[in-house]
């Protein structure tokens, strides 16, 4: 099946306009990809690069977003949960779930329904890792909360960029006395528990997750991300360094 035409200049943005379709009554199924991992592993960069590549390969609209903060309401909640006064762990989990519920209902699902590629920097697995393992709440309860908030929507592929938290912190180049957000200031043990939780989830659900060593160069990490995502999406052999030709049909 040939995807409908899109405006190449509008493929990669925060929220793009709907592209016309050759078959408006039967649009191709959207593709949902999430990036997970600690701060400083390169999620935003890798998501942007993958979005540009998938837009070329699939000829689809691409929507790049993030959690929290992918919507107007999300930006308010992001500021409250990351930069506001102290928030109790359960309240923090509820705020993230509220952001996710609104994000999915108003941005993610509509984009998927019109056949777009949606790539998000963090999704519900971050809540399980950070509020579940990091804050030491019950991980299964945090997961059920997010699944309820999203009506069970899970990504087609989740890319875990794995890196030692100490190395990731060095990459961020934080200066002594620099103001940190609530997660950044939670400490090394917190970051390590979150990393272990991400790895455990990836091991338990290998059909959805791909784990990429984020210690390599940006280019090498992106090449591996492209190969692994293409394999998970059933796209066949693709050139990780260029557009390539899709060997499968994403529906």
Automatic annotation (TrEMBL):
| Single Gene Ontology MF annotation | dTMP kinase activity
Chain segments annotated as coiled-coil in the UniProt record: none
Entry EC number(s) = 2.7.4.9
The record's top EC class is transferase
Ranges for domain Thymidylate kinase-like: 35-225
Q: What are the UniProt keywords, alphabetically?
A: ATP-binding, Kinase, Nucleotide biosynthesis, Nucleotide-binding, Transferase
Which Pfam families does the record match to this protein? Answer: Thymidylate_kin
Recorded hits in SUPFAM superfamilies, A to Z, give: P-loop containing nucleoside triphosphate hydrolases (SSF52540)
Give the reactions, separated by semicolons, that this protein catalyses.
dTMP + ATP = dTDP + ADP
A single GO CC term for this protein reads: cytosol
Say yes or no: keyword Protein biosynthesis present: no
So what does this one do?
Phosphorylation of dTMP to form dTDP in both de novo and salvage pathways of dTTP synthesis.
The record's similarity note reads: Belongs to the thymidylate kinase family.
What is the protein name for this chain? Thymidylate kinase
In its UniProt entry, the species of origin is given as: Luteimicrobium subarcticum
């Amino acid at each position: 099946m040939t995807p409908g035409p899109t405006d190449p200049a509008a493929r990669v943005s925060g929220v793009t306009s709907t592209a016309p379709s050759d078959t408006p009554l039967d649009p191709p199924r959207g593709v949902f990809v999430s990036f997970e991992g600690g701060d400083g592993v390169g999620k935003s960069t890798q998501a942007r690069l993958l979005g540009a590549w998938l837009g070329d390969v699939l000829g689809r609209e691409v929507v790049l977003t993030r959690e929290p903060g992918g919507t107007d309401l999300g930006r308010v909640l992001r500021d409250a949960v990351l930069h506001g006064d102290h928030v109790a762990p359960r309240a923090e989990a509820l705020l993230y779930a509220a952001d996710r519920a609104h994000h999915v209902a108003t941005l993610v699902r509509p984009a998927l329904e019109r056949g777009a590629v949606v790539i998000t920097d963090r999704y519900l697995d971050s809540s399980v890792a950070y509020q579940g393992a990091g804050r030491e709440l019950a991980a299964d309860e945090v997961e059920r909360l997010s699944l309820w908030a999203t009506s069970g929507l899970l990504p087609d592929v989740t890319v875990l960029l794995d890196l030692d938290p100490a190395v990731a912190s060095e990459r961020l180049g934080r200066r002594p006395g620099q103001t940190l957000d609530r997660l950044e200031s939670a400490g090394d043990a917190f970051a390590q528990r979150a990393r272990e939780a991400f790895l455990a989830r990836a091991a338990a659900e290998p059909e959805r997750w791909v784990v990429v060593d984020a210690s390599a160069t940006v280019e090498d990490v992106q090449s591996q991300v492209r190969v692994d995502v293409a394999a998970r999406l059933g796209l066949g052999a693709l050139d990780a360094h260029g557009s390539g030709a899709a060997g499968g049909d994403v529906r």
